[in-house]
Amino acid sequence: MCNILVFAGTTEGYALAGYLYENQVSAHICTATDYGRKQIKERENFTCSGHRMNQEEIEAFLKEKGFSHVVDATHPYASQASVNIREACKKQDVPYLRVLREACAAGDAGGSVHYVDDLAAAVEYLKGTSGNILLSTGSKELAAFTELPDYENRIYARVLSLPSVVQSCAELGFTGSHLICMQGPFSQEMNEAMLRQWNCKYLVTKDTGQAGGFQEKWEAANQQGVQLVIIGRPVQEQGDTFWECRKKLQSICNIPYRPQVSLVGIGMGDSGTLTLAGQKACQEADLLIGADRMAEAVAVPGQQVLKEYRADRILEYLLEHPQYEKVAVALSGDVGFYSGCRSLMDKLAGGLPKEAVIQAIPGISSLNYFMAKIGKSWDHARLASAHGRECNLVHEIRMHEGTFGILGKAQGIAILAQKLCDYGMGDVRLFVGEHLSYPQEKIFSARAEELTDYEGDPLSVFYAENPRPVFYPGRIRDEEFMRNAAGEKTVPMTKEEVRTLSLAKLELPEDAVCYDVGAGTGSLSVEMAMRVSAGKVYAVEKKSDAVHLIRKNAQKFGRDNLHVIEGLAPEALQDLEAPTHCFIGGSSGNLHEIVALLLKKNPAVRLVINCITLETLQETMEVIKTLPLTDTEVVQVMVSRAKKLGRYHMMMGENPIYIISCTGGKAE
Fold first, then answer.
1. Is-above-0.85 flag for pTM?
2. CA distances from 171 to 35, 146, 156, 167, 316 (A)
């Protein structure tokens, strides 16, 4: 049976006692004073006592109660207490766990730190000085400092607010304002206030570690220009950190792992953009996780920190370190705006125990912050991100009055500005934001044509104002396309009604990767690119004059996601990324080879093939029979257009077209 004896009296000891109490582990907590005993909650099988015991008393207590394990969480300077506990456990053959408080490295802040080996050395050093002293070593060591000349006036002693302590201090001559009776921990601000109040030139402390408030003392002394006198630890011990000990207790007592994970949007990085809820979650976390910049922005001194952003590694670490129950993961900006929150939440939910509680805490996004800074409303803006992902920014800016975007390259603004100029949008005004919320924050605006050589921060944001947005009605009229190549030669073009029906049969999602084989003027490629604003279109054409025309039409309609490939299929398709969809308007007799290659690249590719001649129709049906294709549909379309003849209108028929659609995969 798990029955733990904890020698507490320190921050770590009380924390371990609380951990055992919350998990209903049978335990007894020993503190050196009755004051310490009153800090412990009691219940059945969870008791405490408040007096010191020598080695013999500890041995007798171990024998009487039959404890399974002993945890020594006494103060690092209470060396004799640890010796007594350790020897008693050895004689009674009880497993002993020593909790070590990690030392802090104060460094040497311009000569304002002085190290001494022990109490006597500290007294000897101070004998050669003048000026007031704030003594934070506790009441037990006060007697040694009475050797200092004029100690009653020089020393201000900070001790516990216990009647017995006050009495013993008074007997040594420490009274009135020179005796500060307060219970810690003390903040840096409180330490600074005391140093100022009594005009202290020295602050004497032990290296009590982060949990003992050492960092706050050092920071206060450094800020106030006060000499810090540090008394070294009496012995170098072997043992476990607080978290290592808690992990061992978790295993010894079979305490289930019930992590509480908060995915926190921390805003731009400056603490001023962190919400109060996010701040609370980060400060109270046993473990803080985040990429370097994010973790450093919100970590508190002494906190356990894992600098990591990969979801797999975060899950792996949490499972390997179940001692951390309260976890905060710092994520840039807001958890719902181009954030890794969703994928991380899914990963954690699928890998952590079912008792785990996972929550997302929103933050201030770059969108919120930047738009407020430039005084613009974003309720009508189009949102986009090109940071680590494909994004057709030119399309978004061309189609909308306002577009907010995130970039991920130092030349990102210059590249975007140049593209806008290439597509006739050099007058678009770009508002640019870099290092948002940091001291080096930079926000400015200029026309795109003025920024083609600009180099800035790799991670930047922009807002584009387009004075002439172009609305896409869902179709483009035939006469809007350029059809005359060099020498005024007219290039064949798929007519408007056939384009509309062919595109409908393709069933294009917004992020499709499309081929247009035998693209001609590029009319269908352009409309395809309009529909797949988050995808790509590869227009493949063997005739150089038609290739030139496709590029001109792509430029006219602002299709930055349309890539022109000059060459004959299937060879021209070999090095292209796998398509999700393909339209074939011309195959030059290579239809079987083209479709076979498409199926090799993507066995589930969606195809639409247009045929004008019966021979091409026959070839297409043979391909469908011999290759793994299913969901086949054949439609014949004959479009007639009214032509005015005098007072009358006569319908004039276009050539009939066969539209064959199918999908890769054999029917079951």
1. no
2. 21, 11, 15, 6, 58
